[in-house]
Amino acid sequence: MLKTAGVSLRYKRPRLGQHFLKSQAIARRIVLALPIKATDTVVEIGPGRGILTRELLKKNARIIAVEIENRLADNLRESLPSRRLTVQNCDFLKFDLTQYSKVKIIGNIPYWISQPLIEKLVDNQDNWHLAILTFQREFALRLLSKPKRKTYGSLSVFFQYHLKGERLFDIPARFFTPEPKVISTVIRMKPRQRKVDRGFERFTKMLFSKRRKMLRSILKGREIPDYYRTKRPAEISIIGLLKLYKYCQR
Length: 250
Hints:
Layout: E1 20-21, H1 24-32, E2 41-45, H2 51-57, E3 62-67, H3 70-79, E4 85-89, E5 103-108, H4 114-123, E6 128-136, H5 137-144, H6 154-162, E7 163-171, E8 176-177, E9 184-191, H7 198-208, H8 215-218, H9 226-229, H10 238-248
Parallel strand pairs: 2-3, 2-5, 3-4, 5-6
Antiparallel strand pairs: 1-8, 6-9, 7-9
Helix pairs in contact: 1-2, 6-7
């Protein structure tokens, strides 16, 4: 599906089936959302047939296109011969980002790697500084969701604690081939350069696994401030959850 991180994370990969962007105008709009200088290195995730790649090459930057499918990778090398384009035939989840410094990232993300991709970007915050990525809209809304919304959960907390995200625009299904059953959303993200705290990550996952219960019930047996006792996890801001986590660590 639409091309989404895994560090020491197991994931099940379905049969490779991609939905290719077919609108050059939208491809141009996506690329324009990423400020690119000739001195930049841009990593493109899942270039597919190269519609974004063609627009990227117009910017005269160094492009590293990471494509998992052998046939598509070979076609890119043949159809877009350029000294500024390097095609890496591999899974981006296994791609070594640590060999680069402050690259920019762009791509239409396959739905089945969306969450492991976010984890990979969080774990490699020192190696990139700006990304423009297209996700399934439902997933994008979960990333950017705010407290008191149904879509607000542990993924929202994990993403927003580590990364700054901004929703740019939606792409209707008709602009892909074959046409998917979902709408896509383009988002911009930057790393906050916060150290990953696996304890806080586990804590929020535990809370949201019981999201309908009040915190006094979820954290039964622990002393917590009165403010939190009658609240449910989805009612608490990220800063509030972090304060509660640190309080419980005392």
